[in-house]
Design a protein that fits this description.
By secondary structure, the protein is of the alpha+beta class. Helix content is about 55%, strand content about 15%. Strands 2-1-5-4-3 form a 5-stranded antiparallel sheet, with helices on both faces. Strand 11 and strand 12 form a beta hairpin. Helix 4 packs antiparallel against helix 5 and helix 5 packs parallel to helix 8. About 25% of the residues are buried. About 0% of the residues have low confidence.
Length: about 450
C-alpha cells in the first residue's frame, strides 16, 4: 500500500529541501570561488617574494656581505604578508630574512627532513597560523634552500567566519521554512477540508448549495463548480422523480384498460372479441413503451451493439414512410418529398436510423393536418434532413423541453420518442433542432465525419 502523508509534511519537506539545497549550492560556490581566488593571490605573492628574496640573496652572496632584512610587503588585495628563510638541504634553519624568528623556526621544524619537492606550493598549518610555502634551490649552492611563505591566517579565518555565518543562515532559513510551511499548509488545507466536507454532504444526499469563498482563485472556482454540480444533481433528481411519475402513469393507463376489459370478459359484461381487440391494442402500446424505455436506457449508458453501416437516408426515410402510410391515408395526410437525386449516404446503425426517423414521423403524424414534408440532401460536406408538418406547431413554452424524457406538450403522449431521437442523433455526432414554420420543423445535421 502506498504510504500517505499530510500536505503539511509535504510542504515542510519541500520548503526545507529547497532552502537547504539553494543555500548549500551558494556555500559550495562561495568556497570554491574564494579558494580559487586565495590560491591565485597566494601563488602570485609567493612568486613575487621568491624573486625578491632570491635577488637579495644572490646580491649579498656576490658582494660577500650579509643578507639585508627582507621587506615584508602585504598583498594589495588580500593583505597577506610574506617572508623568506634559508634552510639547508635537510630542512634545518640557517638564516631568517626578517624579524619573524618564531614563525620561521616553526616552519623549519615542520618541514625538517622533507625533500624540496614536497615544499613547493604547500599549505602548512601551525599553532601560530596557516601559511602557504614554496621552496627554491640555489643553483650555485645545492645545499641551501630558500623557503618563502605567505601568512594566510587572517584570510582563512575570514573564510571560516563566512561559512559559519552561512550555516547560521541555513538554520534560520530552516526555522523560517517551518513557520512558513505551517502557515501555508494551514491556508491550503482549510479550503480542502471545507470542500471535502461539502463533497461528503453531497455524497450523503444533501443537495443544498453552500456559500463558499476562498482567497485562491482555483479553490473558489472548484467551489463554484461543486455548487453548479449540486444544482445539476438537484435538477436531475427532480427530472428523475418526474420521469418515474410519468412512467408510472403511462404504464398504469394501458394496464388499467387491459384489466378492465379482462374483468369484463370474465364477468360476461363485455363482448370477448371487442374486449380482446382493446386488450391487444393496449398491450401493443405497453410493449412499445417498454421497448422504448429499454432502448433509451441502453443509449444513455453505451452505444447499442451492432456495426454501423453506410446507408442511403432517402431509402431509410422511404421505408419509415411506408410503415406509417396506412395510418396517414386513413387520416387523409399526404407526404411531400424533397430528396437529392444523388444518394445521401450516412454511416449509422440501421436500427438507430429507423428509430430516429420513425419517431420523428410518428410525432409529425400526430399533429399534421394534411401534409408532412420530408427533406434529405447533402449540405456541403455533411448531411441535412428534416421532418415538418402543417400542424399548430410547438408552443414557445414547450420549445425548450420537447426533447426531455416524458415531457408532455399539448396533445402529447408519453413524450419519450423525441428523447430517443435526440439520443440517436447525438450518439452519431449529429445535431437535432426544432422550430416553427407553418408547423413544427425538426432539422437534423450530421457532420463530415459521419458521412461516407
Amino acid at each position: 500500500m502506498k504510504r500517505q502523508r499530510h500536505i503539511r509534511t509535504h510542504v515542510l519537506a519541500t520548503l526545507i529541501g529547497l532552502t537547504c539545497g539553494v543555500l548549500l549550492v551558494v556555500i559550495l560556490a562561495f568556497n570554491l570561488s574564494v579558494r580559487g581566488y586565495i590560491r591565485s593571490r597566494v601563488a602570485a605573492q609567493l612568486d613575487a617574494i621568491s624573486r625578491n628574496a632570491a635577488e637579495m640573496w644572490h646580491v649579498g652572496m656576490r658582494e660577500k656581505r650579509g643578507m639585508e632584512p627582507f621587506l615584508n610587503r602585504p598583498d594589495g588585495q588580500t593583505g597577506m604578508r610574506g617572508s623568506a628563510v634559508l634552510l639547508d638541504e635537510e630542512g634545518r634553519l640557517l638564516s631568517v630574512l626578517n624579524e619573524q624568528d618564531e614563525v620561521s623556526q616553526e616552519l623549519a621544524d615542520s618541514l625538517a627532513g622533507k625533500p624540496i619537492e614536497e615544499m613547493d606550493n604547500q599549505i602548512v598549518t601551525l599553532p601560530s597560523g596557516t601559511y602557504a610555502v614554496s621552496a627554491l634551490r640555489d643553483p650555485n649552492q645545492a645545499d641551501r634552500v630558500l623557503l618563502v611563505y605567505v601568512d594566510m591566517t587572517a584570510i582563512t579565518a575570514f573564510s571560516r567566519q563566512v561559512n559559519i555565518i552561512l550555516l547560521l543562515v541555513i538554520l534560520a532559513a530552516i526555522v523560517l521554512s517551518v513557520l512558513l510551511s505551517r502557515r501555508f499548509a494551514r491556508e491550503l488545507t482549510s479550503p480542502v477540508q471545507a470542500l471535502s466536507d461539502f463533497a461528503r454532504e453531497i455524497g450523503g444526499g444533501s443537495l443544498e448549495t453552500r456559500a463558499l469563498s476562498f482567497p485562491d482563485v482555483e479553490f473558489d472556482t472548484l467551489a463554484e463548480s461543486m455548487n453548479h454540480m449540486v444544482s445539476e444533481l438537484r435538477d436531475a433528481k427532480h427530472k428523475q422523480e418526474t420521469f418515474f411519475q410519468n412512467v408510472s402513469h403511462e404504464l398504469r393507463t394501458p394496464l388499467t384498460s387491459i384489466r378492465g376489459n379482462a374483468e369484463g370478459i370474465v364477468c360476461g359484461l363485455m363482448e370477448p372479441k371487442q374486449a380482446g381487440r382493446v386488450i391487444l391494442s393496449e398491450s401493443d402500446k405497453l410493449g412499445d413503451l417498454v421497448e422504448e424505455l429499454l432502448y433509451l436506457s441502453r443509449m444513455g449508458r453505451t452505444r447499442p451493439a451492432g456495426e454501423a453501416q453506410t446507408l442511403d437516408l432517402r431509402e431509410v426515410l422511404s421505408l419509415c414512410v411506408s410503415e406509417q402510410r396506412a395510418e396517414a391515408e386513413a387520416r387523409g395526410i399526404r407526404f411531400a418529398f424533397d430528396f437529392d437525386e444523388a444518394p445521401v449516404m450516412l454511416r449509422i446503425r440501421e436500427q438507430d436510423a429507423q428509430r430516429l426517423f420513425g419517431n420523428l414521423l410518428s410525432n409529425a403524424l400526430r399533429y399534421a393536418r394534411s401534409e408532412i414534408r420530408l427533406c434529405c440532401r447533402r449540405e456541403g460536406e455533411g448531411v441535412f434532413a428534416s421532418v415538418a408538418d402543417d400542424g399548430p406547431g410547438v408552443s414557445e413554452e414547450d420549445l425548450p423541453h420537447v426533447f426531455e424524457r416524458f415531457y408532455k406538450g399539448a396533445g402529447g403522449r408519453h413524450g419519450i420518442g423525441l428523447a430517443i431521437a435526440q439520443s440517436v442523433a447525438e450518439s452519431n455526432q449529429g445535431e437535432i433542432r426544432v422550430h416553427n414554420d407553418g408547423g413544427a420543423v425538426f432539422e437534423l445535421r450530421f457532420p463530415t465525419g459521419s458521412v461516407s
